[in-house]
Amino acid sequence: TPRPLIKSIVKVINPQIGETVYDGAVGSAGFLCEAFDWMSKSKELNAAEFQQLQNSTFYGKEKKSLAYVIGIMNMILHGVEAPNIIHTNTLTENLANVEQKDRVDVILANPPFGGKERSEIQKNFPITTSETAYLFLQHFIKMLKSGGRCGVVIKNTFLSNIDNASIALRKQLLEECNLFAVLDLPQGSFIGTGVKTVVLFFEKGKPTEKIWYYELNITRSMGKTKPLSENDLADFLKKVKNQEEGENSWHIDIGSINKDNFDFAVKNPNVVEEIDNRTPNEIIAEIERLDCEAAAALKKIKGIL
């Protein structure tokens, strides 16, 4: 997950001293490290608060051995002396067994998407699906205390998929949580993958009444040499607090959402699609003109060779 994006998610969720922070797909522990930096710099800590941050604030789980080791090392390097990270597959835990004492105040995560889980693991969840990210989202909703806050990265297709699991999970999210913001990320935000993603920001304990969207438009071609930067997210961070509307941000009322499919895909109402008003003959003439240009260019190249 790009570091500027992690920092922005942490800023929006704003974990406070005394709250517990959890990532059930901890990976290299980027979210927990950034949350530690944010909380440790939020005020001048007394001895008790420092110990609280060290020992009873940050919790994580990771399935893969290498990622687990890297996550532990990363947290130690950031100043957490004894990280509370467990080497386990989070999804093997039955949601029915989650008790109030297990719940947390803040969840920050980018769970793996596109993966498939076995049928015996799927039985741990009320909404049956093999999609790893959807199982994690159910886990996160269950793990939050009432009033708890979550910032989670997920594929943008989750917002509009028509399979039963997606519809049921969207319904649960909107009815049990206040989905107060959706950040739509551009293609190429995650280096090495062309997957389009969104960040869901929600608070558990009250239903969603309206959703604020922000569409992050970046004109440059993104990649290893031009990754997502803090500058790119500055306007989002400026507007999210008061949920300002603008060219790239808008609200939708939950009453306008179709209750048959709970589709709340990103559709910027400020963007007017250009309609091609040309006649069929004009389009054919344009194609013929381009073909002639291409043939002439090819002939010129052959003459040079």
Description:
There is one protein chain. By secondary structure, the protein is α/β, with parallel strands linked by helices. Helix content is 35%, strand content 19%. It has helices at 3-13, 30-40, 47-55, 65-78, 119-122, 132-143, 164-176, 234-240, 280-304, and strands spanning 21-23, 58-62, 84-87, 104-109, 144-155, 177-184, 197-204, 210-215, 249-253. Strands 3-2-1-4-5-7-6-8-9 form a 9-stranded mixed β-sheet. Helix 6 (132-143) packs parallel to helix 7 (164-176). The radius of gyration is 23 Å and the shape is globular. The mean pLDDT is 90.
Would you summarize the structure shown here?
Helix content is 35%, strand content 19%. By secondary structure, it is an alpha/beta fold.
The 3D shape can be described as globular
Rg, Cα atoms, Å: 23 Å
| Relative helix content | 25-40%
Q: Which percent range describes the beta-strand content?
A: 15-25%
Largest β-sheet summary: 9 strands, mixed
Class by helix and strand content?
alpha/beta
Strand order in space, largest sheet = 3-2-1-4-5-7-6-8-9
What is the tally of beta strands?
9
Mean pLDDT, to the nearest integer, reads 90
Poorly predicted segments: none
| Distinct helical segment count | 9
SSE diagram, text form:
Layout: H1 3-13, E1 21-23, H2 30-40, H3 47-55, E2 58-62, H4 65-78, E3 84-87, E4 104-109, H5 119-122, H6 132-143, E5 144-155, H7 164-176, E6 177-184, E7 197-204, E8 210-215, H8 234-240, E9 249-253, H9 280-304
Parallel strand pairs: 1-2, 1-4, 2-3, 4-5, 6-8
Antiparallel strand pairs: 5-7, 6-7, 8-9
Give keywords.
single chain; about 300 residues; alpha/beta; 9-stranded mixed sheet; 9 helices; about 20% strand
